[in-house]
Amino acid sequence: MTAAEAAFRAEIRDWLETELSGDFAALRGSGGPGREHEDLEERAAWERRLGEAGWIGVGWPDSRYGKALDLQQQVVFHEEYARAAAPGRLGHIGEQLLVPTLLAHGTEEQKARFVPGVASGEVMWCQGYSEPDAGSDLANVGTRAVLDGDRWVVTGQKIWTSLAHIADWCFVIARTEPGSQRHAGLSFLLVPMDQPGVTVRPIVQLTGTSEFNEVFFDDAVAAAGDVVGEAGAGWRVAMSLLGFERGVSTLGQQIGFTRELEAITVRARENGAADDPVLADRIVSAWVDLQVMRHTALRTLGGDAAREAPWAANVSKLLWANWHRRLGELAMAVEGPAAVVTSGLPYELTDDQRLYLFTRADTIYGGSNEVQRNVLAERHLGLPRDRA
Amino acid sequence: MTAAEAAFRAEIRDWLETELSGDFAALRGSGGPGREHEDLEERAAWERRLGEAGWIGVGWPDSRYGKALDLQQQVVFHEEYARAAAPGRLGHIGEQLLVPTLLAHGTEEQKARFVPGVASGEVMWCQGYSEPDAGSDLANVGTRAVLDGDRWVVTGQKIWTSLAHIADWCFVIARTEPGSQRHAGLSFLLVPMDQPGVTVRPIVQLTGTSEFNEVFFDDAVAAAGDVVGEAGAGWRVAMSLLGFERGVSTLGQQIGFTRELEAITVRARENGAADDPVLADRIVSAWVDLQVMRHTALRTLGGDAAREAPWAANVSKLLWANWHRRLGELAMAVEGPAAVVTSGLPYELTDDQRLYLFTRADTIYGGSNEVQRNVLAERHLGLPRDRA
Amino acid sequence: MDLTLTEEQRDLRDAVRSLLTKQADSAAVRAAMASPTGRDEPLWRQLTGELGLTGLSVPEASGGAGATFAEVAVVLEEAGAALLPGPYASTVVVAEVLTRFGRTDLLPALGDGAVGALAQREPGDRSWPPRVGCVGSRNACSWLLTGVQAAVVDGGAADLLLVAAVDGGAETLFAVAGNAAGLSRAAVPLMDQTRRAADLRFERVPAVRVGGPDAVAFARDVAAVAAACEAVGTARRALERTVEHLRARTQFGRPLGSFQALRHRAADLFTTVEAAASTARYAACVVATAPDELPVVAPLAKLVCAQALTDVAAEAVQLHGGIAITWEHDAHLWFKRAAHVQHTGGSPEQLRRQLAPAAGL
Amino acid sequence: MDLTLTEEQRDLRDAVRSLLTKQADSAAVRAAMASPTGRDEPLWRQLTGELGLTGLSVPEASGGAGATFAEVAVVLEEAGAALLPGPYASTVVVAEVLTRFGRTDLLPALGDGAVGALAQREPGDRSWPPRVGCVGSRNACSWLLTGVQAAVVDGGAADLLLVAAVDGGAETLFAVAGNAAGLSRAAVPLMDQTRRAADLRFERVPAVRVGGPDAVAFARDVAAVAAACEAVGTARRALERTVEHLRARTQFGRPLGSFQALRHRAADLFTTVEAAASTARYAACVVATAPDELPVVAPLAKLVCAQALTDVAAEAVQLHGGIAITWEHDAHLWFKRAAHVQHTGGSPEQLRRQLAPAAGL
What we know:
The complex is a heterotetramer, with 2 copies of chain A and 2 copies of chain C.
Chain A: H1 3-19, H2 40-52, H3 71-83, H4 92-105, H5 108-119, E1 125-128, E2 144-148, E3 151-159, E4 169-175, E5 186-192, E6 198-204, E7 210-223, E8 227-228, H6 234-244, H7 249-271, H8 277-300, H9 305-308, H10 312-335, H11 351-358, H12 369-380
Parallel strand pairs in A: 1-4
Antiparallel strand pairs in A: 2-3, 3-7, 4-5, 5-8, 6-7
Chain C: H1 7-23, H2 26-34, H3 41-50, H4 69-82, H5 88-100, E1 116-119, E2 134-139, E3 142-153, E4 160-167, E5 170-177, E6 183-188, E7 197-211, H6 213-248, E8 250-251, E9 254-255, H7 260-289, H8 294-320, H9 331-343, H10 348-355
């Protein structure tokens, strides 16, 4: 570690330590997958605090809008953020998906209008991709938008929309060329959420809590200019966005995983589960696989990764989603017969149970295991496409 | 157990005990999958001895040709045969495949001509189904037969033909209607092996030994009348034969499996492998799964099994093939670092190694895992056929 | 042993299935699990009264139907398939134990919907077989029981409890009335909401001795077989529903079930379920006809069937996709039931350790 | 740590791959494994002499190329991919140990094709880390070694042996010349015919002390990393060949690779291989730059990469179908190599037990 890196690390650590000791102290460990329903107001305030201090968009490649840290610094930032158990981000969809897309495909006017709100932590976004009848088939878009003078009129339904209930805007893939098929004729529209034509209905999950939504567009309106890329060429924009998911934040995610595994390991030592050699073997396996994920992340973030590991996003997703799902199973096994009892009525789950239940979503959302395997087989192994 | 059953069991046990103590004593444990190359002459003599005593074809439904034992008696016979470690059968293809096919589809004349030779243990058969370019696709038959006066002239190549090198006859699926496709236009022909047009080339396996062959038909000849069922309607005959495979002999097979597992368990106790709790857990798993196979066999041989378990053949094959393959892996793990050393030059494998290597064939031959899954999905789950 | 169903067993299965299809569909199950008692009272009265299903294997002389546990197993599979909320499994285990140990005099009024439950685990105990913690002490002509039992399924509603305890150093099985003096019961909430459980505290509670270590072991083993049969029913239904989904749902312009990767996974699950079903059936027949085999067959059946359900429920979620993560779909009910079966009554590792001597280790 | 290959490492990889593609194709490998020495002598001379690959990480001052184990790892992957018969891995492990412990004076003539080997297991020992059984005793200015070592890979051909032994109660690493008096070597045949091994008997054999317990541990760890790197190479090649087969072979009128069940399995294998490759690369860099991490990273890399190869080789056989069961196809060579790597140098269970403290247990 260089002195500059150490200093940078200390700076972030100090800042987080200070900020998370005051009003925000209670937010440590709050939010994130499976807990997205927690502390919404306080976490919104935390987003603004991050924005003030310039810690939103640290990896954006355009220094007009953020710190434009180098890769190593971004790694440090995400590691420290995770290590401090700082709260799960509410603004990550804007920060990690929308802004990179705008920086790559947007007009200067769009950048100037939309990026600062994300950077300040004031404006929240959600992602209108999945539809009820589409499943993993993203190109099966039924939502339509018609240009009517100076505005788009949008009609259709999206589903699995994280944080739609707190979002100010939604980026929506809609079919703008009537009669077009599959990937053609789609547009990437920016639609304000606070209007009569938009209805958000939370989806109650198997945990009894909600963090995904159905979003209904019923003659909802977007400004004619609020289309990213060309109208009708939205598929390319939408797909390039998928490439922005994860990346360097993986290392932060792994620190969260480490913390989860440590808690389970400690519990196993306390309650005697670790004395069962077969269960101990499973715990070590989980630890081993976590190290392998770390090595894979290091390799796929290295200098020449684009050339050496073009498959990184798919391999990483399969590895972490399956690992996390197994971790949920392990947590329950370590808990033993007590694992079946919840912590209270009406349906207050334990951490183990929440992990166990919610990690089932990991292998389904964000590109299911099956989609990742299809992509690996076609693009990276060169196997022929399944006949459609 | 009824008194009659006990007496019958004692009769078989005594007979085997007597016979396998004399000239045939050395044959205990000889032959069978992975050892098909052993003691060919002695095992041929054993076949004739079995035939003399009437122990061939005990399950044939026609009492003109054999004992026509009831199901429970057949179970007892196969169990005792396996328990005595009596030699692997050379005549099982004739006994378990050809004769049941003839009894179902053959003419009286064919039955009278061919069944007695099988029953006496004098005449050996092999099965000409698979072809090099077909893989699991049995309908992809390239072997042709043309009727030329009073004889069929057969040309083509078969592969994975067990025991072709000792067989007197081969039943061959050949295309007898030029230009026909897939399942149509095939015939089930009975072809003598001892003729100039037939060449047998052994396939050297990964064990260094051979039990499968390539069989080349080069204007080989069969009598015009030696077609089972109608000419051109051989697919139905060929497929009904697949239904005869296994069945009640499964229980005998499981006794062989039990013996293999017991040997591994004893070895694990001796060499300390059983003191490794994780390895011990694997051994118990293997034992558990063997019990499950036994219960499944009992259920699928029960009175109403045809109605309750029409999937029996596919499920059983998947269970035993995968179990046996895992057993080979377990044998090596129990042996530990010594597992990598063979027992001698040039390439004399240990029992563990032979089991480990040869069981890889279990999930490939006799309907691969993939074929079994396809059949289960289509026929028993009613899932739509993969698009061809 | 012929493990195929008899004509009568098939009729029984069809009748129960038909009833539960109507009376215990998803909406009814959800209503029952949200109700105060956790069960559909009219349905429970029908099952126990009119149909006499909790007394199925009780001798006719004792007011039962005089069938065997093999018939009970048929009902348990259907109850598992429907995720029927209520104490069916708990009650038939108690009835079987009392019948076997000649104490049908202790049977509560099964025809009136009476409930039995088995208590066999102390709080904090994760060993298997469970440590026996309650203590029985002789008191003139009866026994008094003292101790605590954790998360006893159906323990809150039970009219009769069977309790594993120690008496003079030996494991002993006691029967305790649900309304006995000195017994306090506190509901504990379960992740599997189709079940109810309670912590039980015994303070010098009058008890009747049912039997010694063999009774404790028999009760534990029958409970394991019951759990196995229920699990098979749930697994089979979860797979059926998943296969229906694969047939009906289209993606990329074709039914999901035409994708070979998914078809193969469904085929493997089918193999897993039918193999487990064979073992559950065998175990049920063993309860009925060959109880000597039970100490091996019971843990084996629980091990195999709990794992089968775990595998099927997990894949059912994955193969259904996003909808399976929602509260409104039944997949989470199967999945939570799977966890319940897997983590109670011995973990897979513990059950394999229990079976090690049988396996020659 | 940047784990992507440098420009120089890529060039090295390409050069070695290109050479081995020509000189160590399947036919050449089979000829070599059937030959008396078990290796292709001209190729071995070329690799060691002209290219200096066994001395890659030896300092230039000691006659090596002055690179690091990260470069050696690149070659090991290619050797694994080709299943190159011969003592490359054994020799570079010895070179790395002698370099690290400042004993390059003991290095045999690597440029002339000299061979090193590591002996670390007694006959009948199945523990891990292995029991150290040879005994060293001081004799004036030198040591004498007595004991037996089992199935030492390349032990028969080695010009220099590193031997784990006990000296005054402490684990000690000794160097012994292959032609030393009192050393007898007997070939033992291996299932993996691309390797040669020998049982070694030491009777008061003159030896040089290389280091104490840290040297024994370092040697064992570097051997583990070398095995991991080779295994990754073999796994990657086996998968490539399997994918080629899936592309080329048609069944039911379409390429096998268009069947989704097979494509998904290939994709999972790809994930397994690339994840293992990351860990092997990390471990190789640790040997080069951060040996403090080695006691954890080395067993971890061996564990992960041996398992990856085991998985890939098994599926390579299944996905190739019948042809893979034949002697003429290379699948069995991968499969036997997998077994060799899996069962030597610690079983998966043993390696996980070794890692338990690092995992917090």
